[in-house]
Every structure is written in structure tokens, then in C-alpha cells.
């Protein structure tokens, strides 16, 4: 079985980093746009979910307010606590789409991690898109 990996553009990674820093010390949450195949998840853009809520230990949104868009492939959210591992809450209730990106404080490339629905860590490749 091929291990799926995540490809993310430099601009998208910078967007996740910047948005997380702006909302700190609260969690930030974003919707990921892109494409998925058996081998990879390609993240091409970000959407700020309407009416999202967040605090120091939670973030969320209702998909009721989202227009249908088949390019939504997952979410990215921050963990101000410093751990980029998914919590039980993340795994049990907070998973939306094929991939979950978690970035932890101090919000840098090295603190970004990706997980599948089962909580298995996926390799991330940040690329400079043309």
C-alpha cells in the first residue's frame, strides 16, 4: 500500500503560519482547497470559514454556512499549546475532508504536521509554486 503524502505550496504554508500568528493565543481554523489522489493530497488554497469560532483550546465552524465546493479537501488549525498532534476531540469530532493540517506554536514550517482520518501522520512537501 502506498503511503499518501501532502503537497502544499509555499504561499499556502505562509497563509497558515500568518493566520495562526494573528489569532494567537486562540486557535485558528481554515478550510483547505485542492485535489486528492490515492498517492497525494495537493493543497492549492485556503478559505476562512464563515462564522468560525475559536478560543485557546478549540476552533470550529458549521458546514451549514459553506457553499458546496468539491475542492474542499480538509482543514488546517493551530494548537497554541505547542503540540501539533491531533487531540481526541480533533479525531472524534473535528475531522472534515481527507486531511487535517495542524500547526503548533511558534507557527513555523517545522511545526506543521498533516494527518489522515485515522490520525496517522502524513509526509508534507512544501513547494515553491510557479
What's the gist of this structure?
This protein is mainly beta and about 130 residues long.
What does this structure look like?
The structure is a single chain. The chain has two helices and nine strands, in the order E-H-E-E-E-E-E-H-E-E-E. With 130 residues, the protein is mainly β. It has one domain (5-61, 70-127): Cytidine Deaminase, domain 2, CATH 3.40.140. The strands form two sheets. It has a seven-stranded mixed barrel with strand order 1-3-2-6-7-8-9. Strands 4-5 form a two-stranded antiparallel sheet. The longest helix has 14 residues, at 10-23. The termini are far apart. The mean pLDDT is 91.
Measured between the Cα atoms of the first and last residue, the distance is 31 Å
Count of DSSP H/I helices: 2
CATH topology: Cytidine Deaminase, domain 2
Classified in CATH, the superfamily is: Cytidine Deaminase, domain 2
Helical coverage, percent range: 10-25%
